[in-house]
Amino acid sequence: MEAFRAQVEPFFAQVEPYVPKNAGVRAAAAVFGATAFYFLSLGFYRLFLSPLAKFPGPKLAAVSGWYELYYDVIKSKGKYIFEIEKMHDKYGEYNRSLRILQE
């Protein structure tokens, strides 16, 4: 155990100045880190490990619902259904534009 401690202590001595002293800031950093890890791992799963990953389609539509929000609210003002038709023309009958199937 002492040998392990002797190896680890220099690392902690180097990292300690960067660790916040305030417990609230440390908790906020931990929550932010856990949330970022969750969303990154969810995106990785949806792109590469999901059963729907083999179907063609826009990657952003496969990862999140922001793609649909963009076409419904910002660009086309509620005409995402026409964007789906364009995706069917481009990617074929089966594509990853409908996230309902992923959940």
Question: What does this entry look like structurally?
Answer:
There is one protein chain. The longest helix is centred in the middle third of the chain and has 27 residues, at 23-49. The protein is elongated. It is mainly α. The protein has 5 helices and no strands. Helices cover 66% and strands 0% of the residues. The chain has helices spanning 2-15, 23-49, 59-63, 66-75, 80-91. The chain has 2 domains: 1-49; 55-103, no CATH class. The relative contact order is 0.10.
Global geometry: elongated
The number of helical segments is 5
The total count of strands amounts to 0
Task: Summarize the amount of helix as a percent range.
Answer: 55-70%
* Rounded Rg: 22 Å
Helix and strand content put the structural class at mainly alpha
Average predicted confidence as pLDDT: 83
pLDDT < 50 runs, ≥5 residues: none
How many individual domains? 2
Q: What gap, in angstroms, lies between the N and C termini?
A: 46 Å
Mind describing the biggest β-sheet? none
Which percent range describes the beta-strand content?
under 5%
Order of helices and strands: HHHHH
